[in-house]
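pasting for ref
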Amino acid sequence: MSFVRNADEEANPLKRAITTGLCLFSLFSLLTGCWSRHELNDISIAVGMGIDLVGERYKITIQTVNPSQVAVKKGASSNSPAVITYEETGMTVPEAISRLSVKAPRYLHFSHLRMVVIGEDVAREGISKPLDFLSRNMDMRTDFYFIVARQAKASEILKVISAIDPIPANNMYTKLETSDKYWAATGSMNLNRLLQELGTHGKSPALTGIEIIGTKKMGEQTANTQYVEPPALLKYAGMAVFKQDRFVGWLDENDVKALNYVQNSVHQSTGYIPCPGSTGNITVQAIRSHTVIHPHLVNGTPEFDVNVGIDGDIADVECKIDLSQASVVDELQQLNNNKLESSMQQSIAKIQKNLGADIYGFGNTFHHKFPKSWHQIKDWNEAFRTIKVRVHVDSKLRRIGTILQPIDNITTE
């Protein structure tokens, strides 16, 4: 038996060790680690942003969370606000935000941004420049909402304190989502959708407006949260219409509802119809809605049929009527159809005449169905002013509640 080891056998373990080391080194080099991390103690979490104009400069208001008041711990002062706002101006939005570093004690972190409030003066000048920064910023997500300050500055909107949610940006965010879901007189617009509508020929964007009800100065004080009826409240009111990226006018409540029905974005809503043959009203709650726009080309001219299907419930009856009869329910359905058709037709005609901005997306549907004819239209917004739009509503009253007769009938029998 030979006790002499072969040289190749002695070299093999060394080769394996070197090979393993090189492989591990290659794998480790692919791991970036937390190169872009920010410790919580080093950042200020921005939840709201306001954009105003002061002369030719942008005025940026940033609402940040005050962690000492939001965190549940002993010793926190109840008189201190849950948020802190900082303001600065600059020729561009990112310059103004950079200037805030001399005021804000920590690095401004935008990954939790909830609301961007645009001043009406900025909206009139055009929102494309501020949007360019918001779209390029790697720290921002795209799920925050845009709204337009109405009869107030964006900075004033962000300073109104709410009792229910001490962080105003969160208060506006949840209020907008709730109203959008149950009332249909508002609309939530995030960054992706806004950019898509701005880049779509034949669809102009519309952003929900917000205003201050009450005393603005009281709304900035923590005392505003100590009243049963607060001296200042934030209220969503109408929508701002844009032609391209510039604000051109406001929609009222009925116009916003008509817009949401046409663009198939009504989740739930409430309306009323007059009692047939007597005084009083009947409240109808829409629980489902579905809309389809049918474009047509008639003698070279675009025309549109808007078919709206609605499932609703009867929520309230203020007159003597027998809901157990099918003919009565049919009559109520027809009354509801007629009212909605008339309201939507009038609203569309008003927007065509006064604003000339296709916020409904008729041009976009026409473009998809008739691309050749679409490219022959030089200015769609101008053509939109004269197009024919016919609205057809088919509502079904599915449920009438747990009683058949109105309370008046029951109490008088």
